[in-house]
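help with this record:
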Amino acid sequence: MSKDPIIGIIGCGNMGAALTENLVKSWGPDRISVFDKDPQKQSALVKHFQVCGVSALEDLANFSDVIVIAVKPQDMDAVLGVLNGRKDKLVISIAAGITLSYILSRLGRNVPVVRVMPNLNAVVGASMTGISCSEAVAESQRVLTVRVFESVGSVISVKEELMNAFTAVAGSGPAFIAYVKGEMPPETIRKIFVEESLSFGFDRAAAEFIVDKTIAGTQKILQNFDRDIFIKRVCSKGGTTEAGMKAFESGGRIPQGLSEAIRAACRRAGELAKV
């Protein structure tokens, strides 16, 4: 392909907007199209970044080579219904808790699908993103996925059975780091995150990479965001981060409390998973 593929982003919320902003810098606005069920969200993104907006989800699916699903988990089924059988497209899902097997059961086993978990530090180009690929994903498509998400930070391949743990450490982790910042030494925060990552099954090299990038990204975003506002933005009702923050209520802003928060987030990720 002589030109960069056209990337269609479904969902213009925090993550969809962060991806759009950063991809425009490397891909150019003419290679990016966006769709949101809320026309005001979509038009705001189109106007600000001069990308292409489409009037229907089907148009985005037809027009794009790579389709990034950046919607809430409860909106996934409607999106997957439109994408069924499109084996000529690379489908990337960043919907928390939605497994590859669930997506493939709706789209077909021969559709190349990548499950991706970025974090809100993507807003400042400092995300720690984990990716898991289905069997139909070619190496060139895996490399392309890495390139897309390197536009908003660092990327690591993660076994899908560790995605719930990755969600707790890197997805919810920024809120926990922000919450205990100033309450315990940075080296203690790092040690606890690494120890919990190892207990979940990550090898040491991966654990340290994930934790260090998550901490560095959080430090960067807190230079631009009020801590309490940032924590609220990471927390979604009934989600993994909220579960971790509730654990702090009994555990406190002490090492044991941080450990409990990370574990609670991991448990909640498993409860929310659609398999």
Observations:
- The CA atoms of residues 30 and 51 lie 6 Å apart.
- The chain has two domains: 7-157, 164-272.
